[in-house]
Predict the structure.
Amino acid sequence: MRFSALFFDVGNTLVRMDYRFLAETLGTLSVRTTPGEVEMAECRARAEVDTLVALGLSTESDEIRRRYFSEIFTSCGGGGDAAFADFFHRVCERSAEGKLFVSVPNGVYRALNLLAATKCPLGVISNSDGTVRALLERLDLAHRFDFIVDSGVVGFEKPDPRIFEMACRLAGVAPAQASYIGDLPSVDHRGATEAGLDASILDPVGVWKGKRLRTFRTLERYAEWVATGA
């Protein structure tokens, strides 16, 4: 086992959005698309978010949220300010109801089972609004972690190294003994490495191909790499 503690992002790492809901909502706005196409558009939209975070915006800001869903909307073939405003309003309503991030990707449970067998502490580090624990409890994931660090609770967010340092203290390990995986280089990779942790990026469709990052297509593959070194 190459690490003594393992930490995870939540959105687009452990949990993903309801792509079917997004596709159906777009359909009511005369945008014909499929859940699979929405997923591809969402993955590509992460590049826009990453650019904005690199410029200093918070992942929890209204500006990033709007730009993120605008990218998804246009990538799926949507057009027009009024149509986007309707789409964005419905998405925000769904999110406020706690029903937007409702899907656990295939392989996540298996990956966590494999890593739990290593007996090292598992933790969550998430930029959120204080609701991450409740989300993970609804999806039967919370009990799989030794602790959950939510930026909305602790008062600072990724890429601030302090949130990673807090996780290391909770796990009782030095930063160099911990590994973290998330989905945004400017948030997850930057923050983790600045704090002294090992860092990987989950990249299901190759958005970050060619970048100087260690990427994995699935959480299962990351778990196998951590557990076996292969």
Residues 19-99 form one domain. The CA atoms of residues 3 and 177 lie 5 Å apart. The chain has two domains: 5-15+103-228, 19-99.
